[in-house]
Design a protein that fits this description.
Blueprint: H1 3-15, H2 21-38, E1 50-57, E2 63-70, H3 74-84, H4 93-101, E3 106-113, E4 118-124
Antiparallel strand pairs: 1-2, 1-4, 3-4
Helix pairs in contact: 1-2
């Protein structure tokens, strides 16, 4: 199984509720660490970009979801993020995808849902 297939499987398990988002993050981080041990030495080529999604409880400040997704899997990441985003969040997912494909970096979405008490942040690095 390739690394990309392993990542997809982890994300699918999170989406299906078989594992928590926190467990998925730990698995993805372990997978990334395993890749780093077998990776060739860094070159002048820019490192892979990541889509990062963080959902924080506004009352406690506790992070509920913290997912880092390689841009090669961004379509899955956007769909995953949409599942966790509050229903009242007015997020233009097509606009996000277009911005990412054009090379945008930094904050793409920053939404506070006072009804659910959640703060959703999405950015590219």
């Amino acid at each position: 199984m390739t690394t990309a297939e392993e990542r997809m499987r982890i994300l699918q398990m999170v989406q299906e509720g078989k594992i928590s988002a926190e467990e998925g993050t730990k698995l993805l981080q372990a997978l990334r660490q395993g890749e780093a041990q077998h990776a060739p030495p860094p070159s002048s080529v820019r490192s892979p970009r990541m889509l990062r999604v963080r959902i924080t409880d506004m009352k406690s400040g506790r992070t509920k979801v913290n997912v880092n997704i390689p841009l090669s899997l961004v379509n899955v990441g956007i769909k995953l993020g949409a599942r966790f985003a509050p229903n009242s969040a007015n997020i233009d997912y097509d606009g996000i995808m277009e911005a990412i494909h054009k090379g945008a970096s930094g904050v793409i979405a920053d939404v506070e849902d006072h009804d659910s008490g959640e703060h959703v942040e999405v950015w590219v690095e």
